[in-house]
Fold these 2 entries.
Entry 1:
Amino acid sequence: MAVTITQASDRWFVSFKVDRVCQITEKPIDVVGVDLGIQTLATFSTGSVFDSPKPYKKLESKLSRLQYRSQP
């Protein structure tokens, strides 16, 4: 362990340096990262990809038909 005390511009600063060994602990649950995007709805860090629902593309012909019928 090391401690450094410095003074700069009428202010005092203290910094600590501690050496320690990191311990790897078991996680109770699995963790997955998720990337939300434009081309796909979600991409997981496991490699799974979920496509975006495209309601406009699916209902485009129905919308066109309804717009055509509603014209005077």
Entry 2:
Amino acid sequence: MKIDSKKGFTLIELLVVIAIIGILAAVIIASLNTARGKSRDAKRLADMKQLQIALELYKNDYGSYPSSSGWRGNCATYGGYPTTGATGYIPGLAPTYISVLPLDPKPISNTGCYLYQSNSTGTDYMLLVHATVEGIVPTSVMRPIWIGQPNGANSYAFYTAGAAGL
């Protein structure tokens, strides 16, 4: 009886296995990046909802929303306002009504940030997720921003009924 002393894999078999592993890794990495983007979008939605609640609490106490002159944001393009105190990008909201004003988890550009604007009387406001949204957010949740506002394909807004003209 003859015993075969050649046990193991051939070079072609090893290359095929390595190629299959590489393809699977590429698919997994692409799926992971998509999931990360959706996760950041979910955080942005949660941030906007928390800001809406804090704004309503503020209005309940003071009878109007915090006043601002023009767009205020935490990014340099829109003033680089802090996330708390009377000089925050939403003046006077943090730390009383929300512990700290949220920051975008991953701004896409230097101008990507959360923005706030109110009318001069404080009866209406608009919150804007500007140049940061990575996915498609359903319009039932946030409204796409229109021409005339700080716009971009990745900008969405929450606003009161009378704020459409801000």
